[in-house]
Specification:
By secondary structure, the chain is α+β, with helices and mostly antiparallel strands. Helix content is about 15%, strand content about 30%.
Length: about 180
């Protein structure tokens, strides 16, 4: 069997890749095919996630064994896990985390299962648009986030507040004692 995956990004509207790959290939083979068809370097700690219909992460397939799973919990490593072990239905959804530092992802759907065919190697059968940049400068990302924040005079509270209305005598700062002492009131 051959799986045809459709890959999109929420960062670039016209980006689309379709990859055909044998169902007996490993998740690592799919990982390599994604890197090849996007021109990305193989220098990130990527992961796949099997998702439900609402794109909620369910099962993680890691690039390397992280040794974080409990003895009862299954751990899946890309090189040791065949696609057909975890994927068997068309429209199955996956997320591929290609930039783990900023949690940037590709959304992948198993678009078609082609029976009666086999593939020796993965093939990028459709290529549209340019992929998003593989990694972003963390400092640059923080600058963009800061610029998008609206920190005007209303940010911290009531715009009706007037500092002249502040009554410092109403606060006993450093005076000690119990502020709830009934004799004070």
């Amino acid at each position: 069997m051959v799986y045809k995956f459709r890959i999109i990004s929420d960062e670039v509207d016209d980006f689309l890749r379709e990859i055909k790959i044998d169902s007996d290939a490993s998740f690592y083979d799919l990982h390599e095919a994604i890197l090849k068809c996007t021109g990305y370097k193989d220098d990130q700690m990527t992961s796949f996630f099997i998702c439900d219909d609402d794109w909620e992460k369910e099962i993680e397939i890691t690039l390397e064994d992280m040794g974080t799973g409990s003895s009862e919990e299954d751990t899946f490593v890309m090189k040791d896990t065949r696609l057909s072990e975890l994927l068997e239905d068309e429209k199955q959804k996956l997320i591929y985390v290609f930039d783990p530092l900023t949690e940037r992802v590709f959304f992948i759907e198993l678009a078609e299962i082609i029976t009666g065919k086999d593939l020796q190697h993965a093939v990028c059968s459709r290529k549209e648009g340019n992929p998003p940049q593989q990694t972003v400068d963390f400092d640059e990302q923080m600058k963009k986030m800061d610029a998008s924040l609206d920190l005007d005079e209303n940010f911290y509270g009531d715009q009706e507040y007037d500092v002249d209305d502040f009554d410092p005598d109403g606060y006993d700062i450093g005076g000690g004692g119990n502020p709830y002492d009934e004799d004070k009131y």
